[in-house]
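Show me any protein, fold above all:
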Amino acid sequence: MQLRFVGCGDALGSGGRNNTCFHATGDHVNFLIDCGATSLPALKRLGIAREAIDLILITHFHGDHFGGLPFLLLDAQFTRRSRPLAIAGPQGIETRLAQLMEALFEHSSKTQPKFELSIVALKPGERCSFGAVDVTPYPVVHGESGGPFLAYRVEAEGRVIAYSADTEWTETLIPLGRDADLLIAEAYYYDKVVKNHLSLTTLEAHLPEIRPKRLVLTHMSDDMLGRLDTLSYTAASDGMVVEV
């Protein structure tokens, strides 16, 4: 299985990076984790076939993680997608998606898609299966608006991918990422501790408890991007591919 960072930037486009969108593929799986506002052009630029994507997992309702869905769904309509698609995310996702569709393209939420579309609300701690993909959501801490906020532990084809999403430090990150083949973790700042976001030094202090087999840092501010040459850990970049 492999994972490609379609976009790994923050909400402000630091470093000119695309919004969060990860594409995971294997022999029997093809899914996205998050779909930020820039996702559709980034997917097209990388030559990723949208028709083949079976599942989109959304961590929360901020535009840099969720805002690309209307564009992706309209593209699916206009390209005559026929393959079923599941979109899963926090409680309230069906209402939030309809509101977003209407805000960006009036009446678009009322258009019946030509393909089978299922919207699934996930609950923290309740494992959910989508074909060959098993997803366990964990609650994380990222403010009051734009939630609920979820991190995901995804099991597929004998591998485990864990993604912290946007969050300050919370103890749920330990079982989320424990012994994962790949842990993708926010590292918004290097050592500055702020509400709702994670610093690398805070994460680093807990790595002996988490024990990921591989760590990749994402969602970095200019503070972190200016330190890339000095980091001891792999930092994501747009288009980067990781074998899991």
About this structure: Residues 90 and 148 are 6 Å apart (CA to CA). The chain has one domain: 2-226. DSSP finds seven helices and 14 strands in the chain.
